[in-house]
Amino acid sequence: MIRIEAWAIMNLELKDMHILDRTREPAPEDVGYSFALDELLGRQTGNGGPAACHLWRHPRAFVIGSKDSRLPGAADAVKWLERQGYSVLLRNSGGAAVPLDQGVVNVSLILPIDARIPQRFHADFERMYSLIRRTLSAYGCEVTRGEVAGSYCPGDYDLRVDGLKFCGIAQRRQVRAMIIQAFVIVDGSGSERAELVKAFYDRAGVGTEPDDYPFVRPEVMTSLQERGIAGVEGAEAFTEAIIRHLRERLPEYATAASFHPLRLPERATIEESCRLLRQRYPLPR
């Protein structure tokens, strides 16, 4: 089931935003499908269409970064993952290796770029940080940011609860739109997912120097479930919390008539975009 809603997001300095919830939709086999959909929605936004918040999940996927793909053992590591049934993708945004499953909710903010306004790289990350921090604050959860040493896909915008990482943020920029992507570990074990990432790097990084890839310490990763945050138990509950937070930011004077329509691309169009994405960013073989 796909749900599309439209809400005004004043704190993002936007006139309107559509919410595209695909978390209950049976996931396409190829994880690249959701990244391709982000690309197509970004072009629509950049051409004067609405901003969007795209929420989705994938049952069994592993996304790697461009630096990961250049490790000497990357091809063997990718084959090892594929033999276990993972859909593996070389992402077109920043960041490093991340495992995805039904307990991970992916949040994409797809926003227009205004050429008249100076672009600040970190301001875009702040928008995603603000969305997740404010959503979880309603449940008594204090979220902070800052790199967590030993986490997978590390960066300045690691999001933390109790000092442990549960979310990472990456960004993809088009000519007239930006796509800010976050993975949020909601259910299950953060450390078990980190063990998978560590095993990937153990294979991919054979023969390299220790600083050539992230040194993963599984104990620094967590999930919202493990932190015991009441009210967002489970991926569906977290998704609803995000949507509820966006709804609450709708001014009373806004009406559906004020929104630009969101045109969801046809499945064949998304699949073709996915094929081109994989062609442009091929996995190491």
Give a topology summary.
Blueprint: E1 3-7, E2 17-21, H1 32-46, E3 51-56, E4 60-64, H2 66-69, H3 74-83, E5 87-90, E6 98-101, E7 104-112, H4 121-137, E8 144-145, E9 159-161, E10 164-173, E11 177-185, H5 190-204, H6 235-248, H7 267-280
Parallel strand pairs: 2-3, 4-5
Antiparallel strand pairs: 1-2, 3-7, 4-6, 7-11, 8-9, 9-10, 10-11
Structure description:
- The model is unreliable at about 5-15 and about 250-260 (pLDDT under 50).
- Strands 1-2-3-7-11-10-9-8 form an 8-stranded mixed β-sheet, sandwiched between helices.
- By secondary structure, the protein is an alpha+beta fold.
- The protein has one domain: Bira Bifunctional Protein, Domain 2 (BirA Bifunctional Protein, domain 2).
- It starts with a strand and ends in a 5-residue tail after the last helix.
- The protein has helices at about 30-45, 65-70, 75-85, 120-135, 190-205, 235-250, 265-280; strands at about 5, 15-20, 50-55, 60-65, 85-90, 100, 105-110, 145, 160, 165-175, 175-185.
Work out the number of β strands: 11
What is the share of helical residues? Answer: 25-40%
Number of alpha- plus pi-helical segments: 7
Low-confidence regions: 5-13, 251-258
Name of the CATH first level: Alpha Beta
Q: Any idea what the shape is?
A: globular
Rounded mean pLDDT is 89
Based on secondary structure, the structural category is alpha+beta
H/E element string?
EEHEEHHEEEHEEEEHHH
Overall tally of domains: 1
CATH topology: BirA Bifunctional Protein, domain 2
Radius of gyration using CA atoms only: 18 Å
CATH superfamily: Bira Bifunctional Protein, Domain 2
Main sheet strand line-up: 1-2-3-7-11-10-9-8
Could you give the distance between the termini? 35 Å
What percentage of the residues does DSSP assign to strands (E)?
A: 15-25%
Largest sheet: 8 strands, mixed
